[in-house]
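Q: Hi! New to this. If I give you a protein sequence and the SMILES for NAP, can you show me the bound structure?
A: Yes, paste them in.
Q: Okay, here:
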Amino acid sequence: MLALPLMIIGAGALGGSILKGLRVTTTVDPSDVIILDLHPQAEAQAYGELGARLNPEADVLAEARTVIVAVKPQGWRAVAEAFGDKLRADAVIVSVMAGVRTTDLSAAFGARKVARVMPTTGVATGKGVASLYAAESEALEAAKCIFEPIASTVVLGDEGLIDAATAVSGSGPAYVYAFAAALEAAGLEAGLEADDARVLARATLISAANLLDISGEEPEALIKKVASPGGTTEAGLKFLRAEGQGLNELITATVLAAQKRSRELG
Ligand SMILES: NC(=O)c1ccc[n+]([C@@H]2O[C@H](COP(=O)([O-])OP(=O)(O)OC[C@H]3O[C@@H](n4cnc5c(N)ncnc54)[C@H](OP(=O)(O)O)[C@@H]3O)[C@@H](O)[C@H]2O)c1
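A: Thanks. Here is the predicted structure of the protein with NAP bound:
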């Protein structure tokens, strides 16, 4: 069970998405939410209007039992200095900041228990993706209670794997959008009208993703269903999955490059 009230420090792009997800899924009652943000945007205001405490007096901070930290990585030490000694001794910290290690957070927040989460902004609709890591079970439980209702979650056994998870699911949406753009461009090259190429590329991606979701089948099984021997799909796949220089190698190189950059930024 999530220890309440829940406080969020930083309600920007990601913090606002988490708030929205929690609101639309009714995971946390607004009266149990405390929001700190320098310039509150629409989502913080919306939660505030429903009863969340938005930028309250300093003594309210001592009520928070779970604290999400969602400011930019360069701003977290200032947050720890400003708020660390105002929190309860047993408050659990859940950081969604890229590249900030749990040991550094725990030290800066007065040895409190810390979880690290790498979510996507898709949490706003309750359909995000989130990778969770915590050394202590209490902190992991807090992260699960927040993110399981708004995301598909995985629990990482090692904090170092956050870079791999970031490279796959954090950066992943951009790879998928790049594929949509490439399929559209290829449709144009093949002679389709621009509007038709656009519609066909996007709708194909969305409909295939939907089938992957609802069928529960493995990608290879779904490929078999549409690629008959000697047919058009098989001809295309021969290029796409060419041994040693196809999509598998390209995506692996893409993910490893993103993982390397994530390590550098950390
Ligand atoms: N965006 C994503 O897709 C994504 C994905 C995964 C992880 N993350 C991580 O999430 C964190 C936040 O990223 P973001 O994109 O949401 O950044 P953002 O849009 O800039 O949001 C940060 C928010 O925190 C506020 N803030 C800054 N210092 C504060 C303080 N001392 N007290 C209260 N509020 C403060 C900012 O207010 P001002 O704007 O007024 O300064 C802003 O509203 C980052 O650490 C990032 O690594 C983001």
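A: The chain is about 50% helix and 15% strand. Let me know if you'd like me to explain how to read the tokens.
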